[in-house]
Design goal:
alpha/beta; two-stranded antiparallel ribbon
């Protein structure tokens, strides 16, 4: 069990959310953010800086849409973090990634500090089998995905037109890697965030708790899980898509409303992802993850994904 002194004000635990921008529009997600703001919870909202490709899945509003941009700037002013989920829903060669990052800084006021890869975009950095530190686990992943991603991801490859690793290292602090069916990430690995010296274009990685849609999110923050997170003085970074069922006909899902109201009443530290990770990193004497810790984490993720038979890109 971790001491509660690891968090400011002797808070008992830390909880935050990374909202993946897939399918996001103002109408679909504004009620969620209004609710979180009223609860005193600040979290992280990812965006696409460039227009979506209508031929690809999960088209959403972007920073190129004036109403959506105004909404995003309003969230930033209220203390929410604005992060990146690549620059659009389609493949982005280096020039487009660079342009998108510049657009992000111009429109939001700074480069994104926190980033996640999007699905199967070719510019995804250290994605697919490249996420793993051993050949055996790379093969297990490739078998589990029927080799359909073999050689696809190239954001870390300087020889590829989709390389942007140097830009990532210069401009982004944290990149999300594995997502787990566990509310307390302290139970997954002790080094959070962590640096993997074999992946030099990412400064620090972080893991997340799996809350992909409203049902998964609510299962993860069930009453017993909330109580355990508090009792263990743990850390939770929920990964979700607020456009996936949290709001219907303009109204919040009632189970989500109840559970989040209960959670917010507890003595937690509710800050954006980058704020939490900055705090945790300050407490590390060394953020370099060991090969042993990395192997345990990678094996756990593979077991979870294989048991689900899906979501191999989360």
């Amino acid at each position: 069990m971790q001491s509660s002194s690891r968090f400011p004000g002797n808070k008992r635990f830390a909880f935050t959310i990374f909202d993946d921008t897939d399918s996001s529009t103002v109408d679909l997600v504004r009620p969620v953010y209004d609710f979180l703001a009223d609860l005193g919870i600040r979290s992280t909202k990812s965006v696409w800086a460039l227009n979506t490709d209508p031929g690809r899945r999960y088209a959403a509003s972007t920073l190129q849409d004036s109403d959506y941009l105004n909404f995003i700037l309003e969230l930033k002013n209220y203390g929410f973090e604005i992060a990146s989920h690549n620059m659009q829903n389609g493949d982005c060669p280096r020039e487009r990634m660079d342009r998108g990052l510049s657009q992000f800084r111009e429109l939001v006021g700074e480069y994104p500090r926190t980033h996640t890869n999007h699905l199967d975009n070719r510019e995804n950095i250290y994605w697919g089998a490249y996420r793993f530190s051993s050949f055996t686990r790379q093969v297990a992943y490739s078998l589990g995905t029927h080799f359909r991603y073999a050689g696809r991801f190239a954001g870390h490859d300087p020889a590829s037109p989709f390389f942007w690793g140097d830009l990532c290292r210069e401009r982004v602090s944290y990149v999300r890697n594995f997502v787990f069916r566990e509310i307390n990430l302290d139970r997954v690995h002790k080094t959070l965030p962590y640096h993997d010296s074999t992946k030099p274009f990412v400064n620090h990685w972080f893991s997340s708790s799996d809350g992909g849609d409203v049902q998964q999110f609510c299962r993860m923050i069930s009453d017993p899980n909330q109580d355990r997170l508090e009792a263990e003085s743990g850390v939770c970074i929920m990964y979700t898509h607020f456009a996936s069922g949290f709001v219907r006909d303009g109204k919040l899902d009632p189970v989500f409303r109840r559970l989040m109201t209960r959670l917010a009443s507890k003595d937690g530290w509710f800050v954006p992802v980058c704020t939490l990770l900055d705090r945790l990193r300050e407490q590390h004497t060394d953020s370099n993850i060991s090969r042993e810790e990395l192997a345990v984490m990678e094996n756990r993720w593979l077991r979870e994904r294989l048991s689900l038979g899906r979501y191999f890109q989360r």
